[in-house]
Design brief:
Strand content: 5-15%
Order of helices and strands: EHEHEHEHEHEHHHHH
Strand order of the largest sheet: 2-1-3-4-5-6
Helix content: 40-55%
Number of strands: 6
Radius of gyration: 18 Å
CATH topology of the largest domain: Rossmann fold
Mean pLDDT: 85
Distance between the termini: 39 Å
CATH superfamily of the largest domain: Response regulator
Shape: globular
Length: 212
């Protein structure tokens, strides 16, 4: 049995974007459109409604790329769901992480509406989708012997790195991610080892130098 191809869940924490998506999806013939602005509400909505397709942003407020965990949880719950990741992040390591988590396709937020609809049509029909340039960069990343530094980071480490880049202190990071201060210290220590940074200043420089 296939999931209903006319039902969709749209997940984004910006009301204007949700409104725009709803209009596009109505024009595309989607009969049932669910919306969520948080990871928790999105998973609850999916669990109750089981839509055939999900469009999910990767970044929610100060939680970095927490949308990756949502994609993975949805995929674990329902293998047949078609998931289109929608994000401002164009780093091939993040794109690859989204696909590994279970996204069927990936489109950038600054893409024109025509490309978004093309991605939507591909994913809705069960086909994967990546913009040609993004697909090439992901392929080069996978083929390269020297992997992107981001590809070695865990989801939580990536979230912390994003917050470091924004200039947040250890205490603020712990507060935003609902973590203990010592846990943040340990995570940052691990990021330093993986990135080759020897100080917090070098780690900041690392976070600013890479595409993220």
């Amino acid at each position: 049995m296939t999931l209903p191809a006319t039902s969709i869940l749209i997940v984004d924490d910006h009301p204007v974007i949700l409104s725009g998506f709803r209009t596009l999806m109505e024009d595309a013939g989607m009969e049932t459109i669910h919306e969520a602005t948080t990871i928790v509400d999105a998973y609850r909505s999916f669990y109750r409604q089981r839509p055939g397709m999900v469009i999910a942003d990767l970044a929610f407020g100060d939680q970095g790329v927490s949308g990756l965990s949502l994609i993975r949880r949805i995929r674990n719950l329902e293998r047949r769901t078609r998931i289109l990741a929608f994000s401002m992040h164009d780093d091939p390591a993040i794109v690859a992480r989204a696909l590994e988590s279970g996204a069927t396709g990936y489109v950038l937020k600054d893409a024109p509406a025509t490309e978004f609809l093309r991605a939507f049509d591909h994913v809705r029909s069960g086909r994967s989708y990546l913009d040609h340039d993004v697909a090439l960069r992901v392929a080069m990343l996978n083929a390269s012997a020297q992997r992107s530094p981001l590809s070695t980071l865990s989801e939580r480490e990536l979230q912390v790195l994003l917050l470091i880049r924004e200039g947040n202190s250890y205490h603020i990071i712990a507060e935003k991610l609902s973590m203990k201060y010592k846990t943040v210290v340990n995570i940052i220590s691990t990021i330093k080892q993986k990135s080759g940074a020897h100080s917090f200043a070098e780690l900041i420089n690392f976070s600013m130098a890479i595409e993220i």
